[in-house]
TrEMBL record:
Pfam families: Peripla_BP_4. Belongs to the bacterial solute-binding protein 2 family. The gene is alsB. It is found in: Cell envelope. This is D-allose transporter substrate-binding protein. Keywords: Signal. GO terms for biological process: transmembrane transport. Residues 1-25 form the signal peptide.
Length: 239
């Protein structure tokens, strides 16, 4: 299911990026959040497959990590001057790519916003805009994961915890909200902790370790991305 979703979003993103210009116009770029997360690796593969199907060339870039705002900003700044016809980008935060996005828009570059929604109010104030915004329903993502946990725990339920993304990150907040709503609707489930780990495996390991030390009877973690889930799994494996 996750693989199909990544492929679908990738196809929509590539189609959106190329829809207003000739497929013979050459170069396009996509800036992903990171390639240290399996989700974004799958997204890169989907983009490259779809670009090949559409007979266009696309360069895919990514930040070193989901917390490296400055590197992503600098990457976008560099791409503006490389004559790309279109750039699709997944911001690490609503604010970190506002300035380069405005610059790219003013140069006539076709822009598609992926995943994390850019701060449109500030983008418009900077005389910028995007042609399209493509994302998943992150509230539904969190709710579906939480419901899976509820179903697995059954009528006995138990204590659970949420490992959130980065505080203030819209997609992470939406996943947390979706999961929390499902947990709270089920009286047999007790949500004992909900803490951010900034999309980072090591931070998730630390958060999960601390949660487990305070709540030794915990039955399940919901982590808002794959990378943090691996960190939580490490914490559980150490018990």
């Amino acid at each position: 299911m996750k693989k199909s979703m990544k492929k679908l979003v990738s196809c929509i993103a590539v189609a959106g990026l190329f829809c207003s210009v000739s497929s013979f116009a050459a170069d396009y770029a996509v800036i992903l959040k990171t390639l240290s997360n399996p989700f974004w690796v799958g997204m890169k593969q989907g983009i490259e497959e779809q670009a090949k199907t559409m007979n266009v060339e696309v360069d895919v870039f990514a930040s070193p990590s989901e917390g490296d705002y400055q590197s992503q900003l600098q990457l976008f700044e560099d791409l503006i001057n490389k004559n790309y016809k279109g750039i699709a980008f997944a911001p690490l935060s609503p604010a970190n790519l506002v300035i380069p996005t405005a610059k790219a828009y003013q140069k006539g570059i076709y822009l598609v916003n992926l995943d994390e929604k850019i701060d449109l109010d500030n983008l418009h104030k900077a005389n910028g805009n995007v042609e399209a915004f493509i994302t998943t329903d992150n509230v539904a993502v969190g709710a579906k994961a939480a419901q899976f946990i509820v179903d697995k725990l059954g009528s006995q339920g138990g204590e659970v915890a949420i490992i959130e993304g980065k505080a203030g990150n819209a997609s992470g907040e939406a996943r947390r909200r979706g999961a929390k709503e499902v947990f709270e609707k089920n009286p047999q489930i007790k949500l004992v902790a909900s803490q951010p780990a900034d999309w980072d495996r090591i931070k998730a390991l630390d958060v999960a370790t601390n949660v487990l030390s305070r709540n030794p009877k915990i039955k399940a973690f919901y982590a808002a991305n794959d990378t943090m889930a691996m960190g939580a799994a490490q914490a559980v494996a150490k018990l």
